Amino acid sequence: MHDHRQWFRYVIAALLLTGCAAQNGQGGATVTPTRVPIILENLAITAGQTLFVPAYAEVHYADDGRTIELAVTLTIHNTDFQESIVVTSVRYYDTQGQFVKEYLAEPLRLGPLASTDFFLGAGEQPGGIGTNFIVEWVAETAVHEPVVEALMLSTSGTQGISFTSPGRVISRR
Description:
The protein is mainly beta and 173 residues long.
């Protein structure tokens, strides 16, 4: 009788672990919103912004100019409970202000309370201390402004550093 209980516990534990793995399914990866082709000319745009988001691909940690490279995650959160927004551009610039990369091949619709992110691995792109993103979004109705932030992170041995940088509106539509 005791062996059956132990066997039963193992079976239940295995089923629970399998169920958890099946629910996650992506190994903890961010779920990307469904992409449906969007033709901007067909939208009746009534709101929008261009945001400047400071990002730091590296930071100084010593007086002699030594720096540590950081991974950067840019996250865009639609804060509206009822309406979608359309992210039209996510551009990355290096410390000299030179364009490096456009992260969107086509506009991306973010549903109510949906989020998306863009990742820049440590040392993956040219950057420096003063890198930044320019994010543009539009909406067809009045919406709550999205929250756009950059998260910078690095870990080395037992040391770690992380901080966020909020986006700032530089123009409105």
